[in-house]
Amino acid sequence: MKYLYNKELTLVVGSSSVGKSIALDNCASHAWDEGLNVVLITLELSEIRKAQRIDAAALNIQAQEIKNNKDKVINYYENKKNNNRLFIKEFPTNSINSNQIMNYLYQLELYEGLKMYGGGPNAINLLVVDYLDLLLPNDKKIRSDYESQGTIGAELRAVGQELDLPVLSACLHPDTIVITKNGTKKLKDLQEGEEILSYNKYNKVLKKCTYQKTKRYKITTKSGKEIICSKNHLFPIPLGFEKSIESGLSVGTEIFIKD
Asked: What is the DSSP annotation of 183-199?
């Protein structure tokens, strides 16, 4: 956690099958070992598979040996007697957005007593999402290159800004080499309609998204507080509505923010 900072989104970027997910698992486990409350959301592997990999790393054994070492796993965690908590939650691939992540964190606060705001020993201290490429944008109408992955990254970072905690995720590098029916290509050079090899069969590329830096805006309130956000970040305003810079948030607009 030494190099992860509150209100920042940190990305592990690499090619396919180089260990991005394992790196996220290890970071989550290490943060939990340090006494932090961690929420690990998985959009690729199952909750059981994630837990097995964390258990295997903790006991320094192969993941496939976990079932045969059940007693060792139980004894390991009973002896640790950590008061902090690690939640692993599985969602289907390409099924949720950052708003739904916030809703899940709210459920943890309601039913598990893990506070969303305020930090400290009774609150969420680190959010890990495996991984950014498998999230959806909040706005279902978004289709352009910028408004897809760029916006997803900005929205995930906004979760960290809102809750004042570090967010850790991963994404594929655009130079990742993939196998098509016409030879190898870099991920960034693929075109919609091409077929790429996935596991043991070819699958058609239905949509291509280009990674771009998200333009950021700084909002300064009357009290002097500064907020860095994307143009699509929604702020609650009086009368129960929400506005973003794109939808008309301007100088003089009153917004509700955390003290």
From this structure: EEEEGGG--TT-EEEET
Contact 81, 127 (CB under 8 A): no
231: left (phi over 0), alpha (psi -120 to 50) or beta: alpha
245 and 183 housed in the same domain:
no
pLDDT on residue 39? 97
Closest CA to 160 of 209, 107, 230: 230
The full length of the chain comes to 259
Q: Can you tell me which residue has the tokens 């973003």? A: 244
pLDDT for position 147: 47
Considering the entire predicted model, what is its pTM?
0.70
Q: How far is CA 258 from the centre of its chain?
A: 22
74 contact partners, CB below 8 Å, separation of at least 6: none
Measured distance CA(148)–CA(238) in Å, rounded: 29
In a domain, 170, yes or no: yes
Q: For the sheet containing 38-42, what is the strand order?
A: 9-14, 167-172, 126-130, 38-42, 86-90
Number of structural domains found in the chain: 3
Same domain, yes or no: 259 and 203: no
pLDDT along the chain (259 residues), means of 10: 82 78 91 94 90 89 86 88 90 89 95 92 95 83 56 88 93 74 79 74 68 70 80 74 80 76
Cβ contact 11:171 at 8 Å: yes
